Amino acid sequence: MNIADLRKSYEKAELSESASHANPLQQFDQWLTEAIRSEVPEPNAMTLATVGSDLRPSTRIVLIKGYDERGIVWYTNYHSRKGQELAGNPFAALQFHWVELERVVRIEGVVEKVSDEESDAYFQSRPLDSRIGAWASPQSEVIESRTVLVTNAAKYGAQFLLQPPRPPHWGGYRLKPGNWQFWQGRKSRLHDRLRYTAQADGGWLRERLAP
Q: pTM of the full predicted structure?
């Protein structure tokens, strides 16, 4: 098999200016809802891209946990690589890829931590083992073996029992979009691609980009 010969013709849908929302958040809500209803795998999974002090980008998959006019929310360890990079450079990018629907959404903007109240509320909604895991994993640090994680989980499980508090190093981030792009695959690689750019008056400029 020659990997260069792998091709797919995208023919499931289209994205026009007349049929899209003027507000990108509404367009995102529509597409995410359709992805969930279509039962695509992990419709809430998104790639998060950050840039470190060495100016080298890094990416990882995180899960969206909320969105509204304020931005896109996810939760993680503040001491992780992404947390350290966001502390030094708050600009980041997100990408959703719903393969089965032949759609991509890209979002760029500035990131800030959510309030302690929001982080506390979400943390308490998590399954117990996930709450213990937030204490057990020194995320992004080198560890000798998986035994370290298992030992830590047992230790914190015994310490906190059924009521582990939210770790001070764990909580939410919110990306406030300044730029959205919606990509719909089309036949002959003539894809539909709409960009929304935030304007000073609070509105959005919608433009079509060449694929």
A: 0.94
Is pLDDT above 90 for 131?
yes
Count of domains observed in the chain:
1
Residues serving a catalytic function are 189
Q: What percent of the chain stands above pLDDT 90?
A: 98
Amino acid 136: pLDDT: 97
Q: Which structural domain range is residue 53 located in?
A: 9-208
Is there a domain that residue 3 lies in?
Answer: no
Residue 111 lies in a domain: yes
- CATH number of the structural domain spanning residue 169: 2.30.110.10
Please enumerate in sequence order all residues whose Cβ is within 8 A of that of 97, keeping only pairs 6 or more positions apart, or say none. 47, 103, 104
- Tell me whether residue 199 is in a domain: yes
